[in-house]
Amino acid sequence: MASDGERTLVLVKPDGVARRLVGEIVSRLERKGLRLCAMKLLVLSPAQAEAHYAPHVGKPFYPGLIRFITAGPSVAMVFEGPRAIALVRALMGATDPLNAAPGSIRGDLAVDMGMNLVHGSDAPEAAAREIANLFAPAEIVGAPLPDEGWLFGGGD
Q1: CB neighbours (10 Å) of residue 51?
Q2: Which residue among 58, 62, 120, 123 is least enclosed by CB atoms within 10 Å?
Q3: Catalytic residue annotation
Q4: What secondary structure letter does DSSP report for 11?
Protein backbone atom coordinates (compact mmCIF):
# COMPACT_ATOMS: atom_id res chain seq x y z
CA MET A 1 0.00 0.00 0.00
CA ALA A 2 1.13 3.53 -0.63
CA SER A 3 2.22 5.57 2.35
CA ASP A 4 -0.62 8.07 2.24
CA GLY A 5 -3.23 6.15 4.22
CA GLU A 6 -5.56 3.23 4.04
CA ARG A 7 -7.55 1.78 1.19
CA THR A 8 -11.23 0.98 0.98
CA LEU A 9 -13.56 -0.58 -1.53
CA VAL A 10 -16.47 1.49 -2.77
CA LEU A 11 -19.20 -0.05 -4.89
CA VAL A 12 -21.78 1.96 -6.76
CA LYS A 13 -24.49 -0.68 -6.75
CA PRO A 14 -26.77 -1.49 -9.71
CA ASP A 15 -29.36 1.09 -8.63
CA GLY A 16 -26.73 3.86 -8.58
CA VAL A 17 -25.44 2.86 -12.02
CA ALA A 18 -28.99 2.65 -13.41
CA ARG A 19 -29.77 6.11 -12.03
CA ARG A 20 -26.56 7.52 -13.58
CA LEU A 21 -25.12 8.64 -10.24
CA VAL A 22 -21.60 7.24 -10.66
CA GLY A 23 -20.06 10.62 -11.51
CA GLU A 24 -21.81 12.35 -8.61
CA ILE A 25 -20.59 9.72 -6.15
CA VAL A 26 -17.01 9.71 -7.44
CA SER A 27 -16.99 13.51 -7.37
CA ARG A 28 -18.06 13.64 -3.72
CA LEU A 29 -15.31 11.21 -2.71
CA GLU A 30 -12.63 13.01 -4.71
CA ARG A 31 -13.69 16.45 -3.43
CA LYS A 32 -13.21 15.14 0.10
CA GLY A 33 -9.58 14.46 -0.80
CA LEU A 34 -9.66 10.70 -1.32
CA ARG A 35 -7.61 9.37 -4.22
CA LEU A 36 -9.08 6.96 -6.77
CA CYS A 37 -6.66 4.03 -7.25
CA ALA A 38 -8.79 1.61 -9.29
CA MET A 39 -12.15 1.54 -11.04
CA LYS A 40 -14.08 -0.90 -13.18
CA LEU A 41 -17.60 -1.50 -14.41
CA LEU A 42 -18.68 -5.09 -13.89
CA VAL A 43 -21.58 -7.37 -13.18
CA LEU A 44 -20.60 -9.30 -10.07
CA SER A 45 -20.67 -13.04 -10.57
CA PRO A 46 -22.58 -15.11 -8.03
CA ALA A 47 -19.23 -16.27 -6.59
CA GLN A 48 -17.99 -12.67 -6.22
CA ALA A 49 -21.29 -11.64 -4.63
CA GLU A 50 -21.21 -14.57 -2.20
CA ALA A 51 -17.62 -13.74 -1.21
CA HIS A 52 -18.50 -10.06 -0.82
CA TYR A 53 -21.52 -10.73 1.40
CA ALA A 54 -20.02 -13.75 3.25
CA PRO A 55 -20.46 -12.04 6.66
CA HIS A 56 -24.24 -12.08 6.07
CA VAL A 57 -24.66 -15.77 5.20
CA GLY A 58 -27.65 -17.20 7.04
CA LYS A 59 -29.35 -13.87 7.62
CA PRO A 60 -32.88 -13.54 6.21
CA PHE A 61 -31.90 -10.75 3.82
CA TYR A 62 -28.84 -12.57 2.36
CA PRO A 63 -30.57 -14.09 -0.72
CA GLY A 64 -31.95 -10.66 -1.63
CA LEU A 65 -28.49 -9.10 -1.34
CA ILE A 66 -27.07 -11.64 -3.78
CA ARG A 67 -29.97 -11.20 -6.24
CA PHE A 68 -29.70 -7.41 -6.13
CA ILE A 69 -25.92 -7.04 -6.47
CA THR A 70 -25.79 -9.50 -9.41
CA ALA A 71 -28.83 -8.04 -11.20
CA GLY A 72 -26.94 -5.39 -13.16
CA PRO A 73 -23.67 -3.54 -13.51
CA SER A 74 -21.88 -2.05 -10.52
CA VAL A 75 -18.86 0.22 -10.46
CA ALA A 76 -16.14 -1.10 -8.17
CA MET A 77 -13.50 1.34 -6.96
CA VAL A 78 -10.58 1.51 -4.60
CA PHE A 79 -10.06 4.80 -2.81
CA GLU A 80 -7.06 5.70 -0.71
CA GLY A 81 -6.29 8.34 1.87
CA PRO A 82 -5.87 9.02 5.56
CA ARG A 83 -8.77 7.36 7.42
CA ALA A 84 -10.33 6.44 4.05
CA ILE A 85 -12.68 3.83 5.53
CA ALA A 86 -14.21 6.20 8.09
CA LEU A 87 -14.37 9.07 5.59
CA VAL A 88 -16.17 6.99 2.96
CA ARG A 89 -18.65 5.68 5.51
CA ALA A 90 -19.38 9.19 6.74
CA LEU A 91 -19.84 10.46 3.18
CA MET A 92 -22.19 7.56 2.37
CA GLY A 93 -24.43 8.16 5.38
CA ALA A 94 -26.54 5.67 7.30
CA THR A 95 -27.62 2.46 5.56
CA ASP A 96 -31.27 3.48 5.79
CA PRO A 97 -31.69 6.67 3.74
CA LEU A 98 -34.38 7.85 6.18
CA ASN A 99 -31.68 8.00 8.86
CA ALA A 100 -28.91 9.33 6.62
CA ALA A 101 -27.85 12.90 7.24
CA PRO A 102 -28.61 15.53 4.61
CA GLY A 103 -25.43 16.13 2.65
CA SER A 104 -24.48 12.45 2.66
CA ILE A 105 -24.77 10.36 -0.51
CA ARG A 106 -27.65 8.30 0.86
CA GLY A 107 -29.26 11.26 2.62
CA ASP A 108 -29.36 13.24 -0.61
CA LEU A 109 -29.82 10.56 -3.26
CA ALA A 110 -31.11 7.21 -1.91
CA VAL A 111 -34.75 6.39 -1.26
CA ASP A 112 -34.80 2.78 -0.05
CA MET A 113 -32.75 0.79 2.46
CA GLY A 114 -32.50 -2.17 0.08
CA MET A 115 -31.42 0.00 -2.82
CA ASN A 116 -29.13 2.49 -1.13
CA LEU A 117 -26.74 3.19 -4.01
CA VAL A 118 -23.33 2.48 -2.45
CA HIS A 119 -21.24 0.11 -0.38
CA GLY A 120 -18.09 1.00 1.51
CA SER A 121 -15.86 -1.31 3.52
CA ASP A 122 -16.45 -1.14 7.27
CA ALA A 123 -13.00 -2.14 8.59
CA PRO A 124 -9.43 -2.62 7.32
CA GLU A 125 -9.81 -6.42 7.25
CA ALA A 126 -13.05 -6.17 5.29
CA ALA A 127 -11.47 -3.69 2.88
CA ALA A 128 -8.55 -6.03 2.17
CA ARG A 129 -10.90 -8.98 1.60
CA GLU A 130 -13.35 -7.00 -0.56
CA ILE A 131 -10.64 -5.39 -2.68
CA ALA A 132 -8.94 -8.76 -3.30
CA ASN A 133 -12.32 -10.23 -4.33
CA LEU A 134 -12.75 -7.71 -7.16
CA PHE A 135 -9.28 -6.46 -8.12
CA ALA A 136 -5.95 -8.05 -9.00
CA PRO A 137 -3.00 -6.22 -7.41
CA ALA A 138 -1.84 -5.03 -10.85
CA GLU A 139 -5.18 -3.24 -11.36
CA ILE A 140 -4.57 -0.90 -8.42
CA VAL A 141 -2.45 2.18 -9.06
CA GLY A 142 -0.69 3.02 -5.82
CA ALA A 143 1.96 5.54 -6.77
CA PRO A 144 1.13 9.23 -6.40
CA LEU A 145 0.81 11.21 -9.59
CA PRO A 146 3.86 13.22 -10.65
CA ASP A 147 3.89 16.98 -10.22
CA GLU A 148 0.96 18.35 -12.21
CA GLY A 149 3.33 20.33 -14.44
CA TRP A 150 3.61 17.25 -16.65
CA LEU A 151 -0.07 17.55 -17.47
CA PHE A 152 -0.01 21.19 -18.52
CA GLY A 153 3.39 21.25 -20.19
CA GLY A 154 4.96 23.26 -17.38
CA GLY A 155 8.63 23.43 -16.51
CA ASP A 156 11.66 23.03 -18.74
Answers
A1: 15
A2: 58
A3: 119
A4: E
